[in-house]
Amino acid sequence: MEKLVEVKDLWKTFGRSGTLLNKLGNRSQVEAVAGASFEIGTNEIVSVVGESGSGKTTLGKLLVRLLEPTSGEVRFRGKNIFEMRKKEMTSLRRSVQMILQDPYDSLNPLFSIFASVSKPLNIFEKNLSRKEKEDIVSEHLEMMGLKPAEQFMYKLPSELSGGQRQRVSIARAMILKPEFIVADEPVSMLDVSLRAEMLNRMKKLSRDGGSSFLFITHDIASARFMGDRMLIFFRGRIVEQGKTENVIENPKHPYTRLLIESVPVPDPERSKAFLSVDETNGYNEEGYSAKGCRFASRCPFVMDRCRNTEPPVYTISKDHSVSCFLYE
Ligand SMILES: Nc1ncnc2c1ncn2[C@@H]1O[C@H](COP(=O)(O)OP(=O)(O)OP(=O)(O)O)[C@@H](O)[C@H]1O
Ligand code: SF4
Ligand SMILES: [Mg+2]
């Protein structure tokens, strides 16, 4: 498979302004993305799974350059997007799209649905007539189940439900037939009954239209359904990655095993900690613990060395790797 996107040792650190620690002069920081490396092939869907605050949106925004990294590279067709100049960026904006987690962020509240969805056509397909644009917008809205499209096109975002807005955002991202789409929790606001249908449509669009996807979700079942490959994200780190069947059928990292609920828990007291939300959210006084495994405070298999040294990446098989000392 041809490589479309290559991510190499990507880091994004945010300052934690406004926190009590900062007010006291402590320069603590959040490593939202910490050394991510992976690839996405042409026509491939890669799922990212992780809990709230693990850095999924930050990773997605870096991949389409809505954010600049602290360090590292994202190569699109071999070219580092963070070194692209204006002209190359214009062409990148046509080839890559992001469906934002909150559709309010991508739809101008003062513009009709038609105006928002047709905007990319106004920029990149200037020669189309109004009628042609209406037909394309209508086709894409109907593809997302907003039928008949005329009922939605001239409404404002505030007149639609959250789920309908989410479908508009998907239609908008698809309209230029991009090569690469970052879809950030794209169906989270839809009724459960509609979610599978929308995911199916997105998968079909990817297969038929030849788009690659980074599909972001906190739900391992949708990640499994959508992804050819999976990245398991925990506090900014990819703790496990590989072909979907490898990760699901042979999960290695204790966190992945927790996610798919097949973990044998040796000690009931530890299992409580394992399943509970860590109220410190992984921060110590320096922000995320600078050393050691980020999962150590919740891991039932933790060893002394886990608290002092960050585990490196171990290869399990051709398309399966894990960051955990248990697989040394
Ligand atoms: N602009 C920002 N400034 C400061 N900190 C930020 C910023 N954006 C994100 N963060 C922090 O980075 C971490 C990762 O956030 P991010 O939104 O990427 O997580 P997420 O996995 O998408 O979460 P969710 O599932 O809730 O959407 C969080 O601790 C968050 O508070
Ligand atoms: S490195 Fe240690 S603490 Fe981290 S997941 Fe593996 S066993 Fe658990
Ligand atoms: Mg997010």
Automatic annotation (TrEMBL):
<dbReference type="GO" id="GO:0005524">
    <property type="term" value="F:ATP binding"/>
</dbReference>
<keyword id="KW-0547">Nucleotide-binding</keyword>
<dbReference type="InterPro" id="IPR003593">
    <property type="entry name" value="AAA+_ATPase"/>
</dbReference>
<dbReference type="GO" id="GO:0015833">
    <property type="term" value="P:peptide transport"/>
</dbReference>
<dbReference type="InterPro" id="IPR017871">
    <property type="entry name" value="ABC_transporter-like_CS"/>
</dbReference>
<protein>
    <submittedName>
        <fullName>ABC transporter ATP-binding protein</fullName>
    </submittedName>
</protein>
<dbReference type="InterPro" id="IPR013563">
    <property type="entry name" value="Oligopep_ABC_C"/>
</dbReference>
<dbReference type="InterPro" id="IPR003439">
    <property type="entry name" value="ABC_transporter-like_ATP-bd"/>
</dbReference>
<dbReference type="GO" id="GO:0016887">
    <property type="term" value="F:ATP hydrolysis activity"/>
</dbReference>
<dbReference type="InterPro" id="IPR027417">
    <property type="entry name" value="P-loop_NTPase"/>
</dbReference>
<dbReference type="Pfam" id="PF08352">
    <property type="entry name" value="oligo_HPY"/>
</dbReference>
<keyword id="KW-0813">Transport</keyword>
<dbReference type="Pfam" id="PF00005">
    <property type="entry name" value="ABC_tran"/>
</dbReference>
<feature type="domain" description="ABC transporter">
    <location>
        <begin position="5"/>
        <end position="260"/>
    </location>
</feature>
<keyword id="KW-0067">ATP-binding</keyword>
